[in-house]
Amino acid sequence: MPATVPDPPAGGYHDNADEFRRRGHELVDWVADYLARVEDLPVRPAVAPGWVRAQLPTSAPQAPEPWEAIVADLDRVVVPATTHWQSPRFFGYFPANSSPPSVLADLVSSGLGVQGMLWSTGPACTELETHVCDWLVELLDLPARFRSDGAGGGVIQDSASSATLTAIVAAREAATGGDPTVLARLRAYTSDQAHSSVEKGIRVAGLTAGQLRLVDTDADHAMRPDALAAAVAADVAAGALPFLVVATVGTTSSMAVDPVAAVAGVLDDVDLGDGRRPWLHVDAAMAGSAAVVPELRPLVNDGLARADSWCFDPHKWLFTNFDCDVLYVADRAALIGALSVLPEYLRDEASESGAVIDYRDWHVPLGRRFRSLKLWFVLRRYGAVGLAHHVREHVRLAEGLAARVVAHPALELAVPRSLNLVCLAHVDGDAATQRCIDAVNASGAFVTHTRLAGRLVLRVCIGQTRTVARHVDALWEALAAGAGRG
User: Fold this and answer.
1) What is residue 197's predicted lDDT score, i.e. its pLDDT?
2) Which of 48, 62, 166, 182 is deepest in the core (most CB within 10 A)?
């Protein structure tokens, strides 16, 4: 005989407000305790592939489980199998830092459960986003043409990858006018050090990887304007249509900064008709946050007045938890024209009045979270002075580490230190560099690698929220011991 299914409790299976309040307080305590002890946890989990699934039942539960059992499995299953990006000993890849104001704002966003596809489906979601984006234009000293009270404006995306894809689609439509017969002639350009999202975006936008030119870089791994000019001229001579250049301010491998102003100058010589030139998108995913520090702005903001779009990730280095990328455009009409699709069920009076922004037209997804809340909380809680202090301190720590590398007889900088990234190698070659990487990671810290000019390079990216001098000191001790010759 089949098991008897009991009748549901009165009101269904939902927790009531008192239960939610009690469990919410417990989980906030759990998160606070986690952040307090994360420094003592190994950054990388010691689990094999499949370990997590082996700890879990093969089928979803038929009956409700007690909260205590669910929370216990956070400690039993989730924490032991987590790479702890919030650890102050995390120096790999790039930071994905968060902060208590951001975490709490994400809770509010989830509680409100807003779907902000239209202004009318979330007036606060839309207008707060516009306002915060305008705040950032001033805070980062960006060109005024990115403000919403002109022709441009900002929008929060999930990541710089999505922002780049959005820019590619807008550039494609601006160059072709929607004529599909022109697509095969299009050519895009980026440096050979640019993020892989550029090629992926080209593919998703309906073009081929062969339509993307990887431009040579100089000794500092920044795009060479002369090489760009030569590539563009060769394509024009062959009948192709250059439509986009993606410049990088802060490459992933070495934090190289492309000369944006010089790149824009190359594009001035390319006429797409009606005085239009190819679209210039600038990807400043991590480095863009450095502009909160006035003395760092000349490095990261140079030439932006010539850019058609620019993006950066507050979820990397501005203490706002993932996901949160801000994309600015100088002409929002080009973006909306490329992405707007208007079925009848999305028509409403507010939209048709022309007095509101519908952010569904500013990116690929229709649906969107209330992401601006966490950025709003962070900007208000830290203030410009607080944000600049912490970013400046990360750069200071990187400067100190770079000086130690220069002074060590067995180590050398692979490239000059740039912002908060130190790239180094052992003078005895790749095998010795790998031993340094292994020694640091065995110590409980975590670093990653790249290759520059074919050489294995150890990267130390200093940007986690709670990283201070003693964490960098401990990393250095492990690195120096692994390098030998001390």
Assistant:
1) 92
2) 166
* Type of residue found at 437: I
Burial level of 377, CB count in 10 A (0-12/13-18/19+)? buried
pLDDT digits (tens, 9 = 90+) for 406-424: 999 999 999 999 999 999 9
248: β partners: 283
> pLDDT tens for residues 281-301?
999 999 999 999 999 999 999
> In this predicted structure, what is the pLDDT of residue 1?
46
Query: In the CATH scheme, what architecture does the domain 384-483 have?
Result: Alpha-Beta Complex (3.90)
Yes or no: say if 189 and 198 are a contact pair by the CB < 8 Å rule.
no
CATH topology of domain 17-40+45-82: dopa decarboxylase, N-terminal domain (1.20.1340)
Task: Count the Cβ atoms, other than its own, within 10 Å of residue 480.
Answer: 19
**CA-CA distance, 14 to 389, in Å (whole number)?**
45
pLDDT of 346 = 78
Structure tokens at 8: 């549901």
CA dihedral 438→439→441→445, nearest 10 degrees, is -160
Would you list the domain boundaries of the chain? 17-40+45-82, 114-369, 384-483
For residue range 160-203, what is the model confidence (pLDDT) as tens digits? Answer: 899 999 999 999 999 988 888 999 999 999 999 999 899 999 99
- The rounded distance, in Å, linking the Cα atoms of 175 and 205 is 13
101 neighbors 378 (Cβ within 8 angstroms) = yes
Residue (of 142, 158, 145, 148) closest to 119 by Cα position: 148
User: Any idea which residue has 């005989």 for tokens?
Assistant: 1
The conformation of residue 39, written as its DSSP 8-state character, comes to: G
Read off φ and ψ for residue 320, nearest 5 degrees.
Answer: -120, 120
- Please name the CATH architecture into which domain 114-369 falls: 3-Layer(aba) Sandwich (3.40)
Q: What is the pTM of this model?
A: 0.93
Q: What percent of the chain has pLDDT over 70?
A: 98
Three-state DSSP class for residue 448: strand
Distance CA 375, CA 318 (A): 9
Distance CA 316, CA 44 (A): 19
Mean pLDDT within 219-242? 95
Q: Which are the contacts of 462, defined by CB distance < 8 A and separation ≥ 6?
A: 91, 394, 397, 398, 401, 420, 421, 422, 472
Q: How many C-beta atoms lie closer than 10 Å to residue 306's C-beta?
A: 20
Of all helices (H) and strands (E), which one includes residue 479?
helix 469-483
359: Cβ contacts below 8 Å, ≥ 6 apart? 116, 117, 126, 129, 155, 368
